[in-house]
# Entry
Amino acid sequence: MKNQELFKIANIIEERKHELARQVKGEEENEEATKAFEELYQLFADGLKNGKEETVENVTEWGKRIGKLSLEYGGKLDESLKETSAFRDTLWDTIERIMKEEDFSRDTVFRVARIIDPLLDEAVYAFSTEFVDSYKETLDKAQEEFLKLSAPVVPIYDGVAVLPIIGSVDENRAYYLMDTTLKEATKRQLSYLLIDLSGVAVVDTMVANSIYNIIHSLELVGVKAILAGIRPEVAHTMVSLGINFSEIQTYNSLQQALSTHVFK
# Structure
């Protein structure tokens, strides 16, 4: 008898899933989102019929898939969680009406809750973690692309290239500059690399040390590094930091360095 009551509730949810999914979205028409909520209502109907343990894996898969899709479609986590709250309210309002219409026992309410609530919690958890993980992955890819663009080794002549450094240099970028520069210098068989610092606004100890390390690492692979675009205040900072650039050729502009070493 008790299982029959659960089956009846499940069948009614299954029959009304499209209507219920549209109630969650309200006036906002979104076919993809409506379809996703239909699938979730179906999963809860399955849970009432087959049990929580038999359904939880499918609910987890649903949460992960929809979490990733939500981010791809430009969704926001807080708005999605509000819709989850609306889903919970709509689902329980429906179950409450069914219980009253069919005059089911109080025990059935508790049995339904022991199945529905853990499954919904799992759906929210899987959705949220996948959304956040996908968001972090997107940020990591964006940062990687930015770093690639921020360390361009530009060949200008046979065996000669320019590395323009623009903007601030943090620890991550300093590491990427070192790695990319050495790889590109070896790949392009460079003899000279002109490092243009005219776009660097601030030179602190870390930046100066990073440049110094790049220059000496290049020497180890047979590439002569030349500093260009050093403004007076940057030169003063380097000296005050106690970093010795006396053995490195420096020029106050890239044009001057090119005139001396390339177009002489």
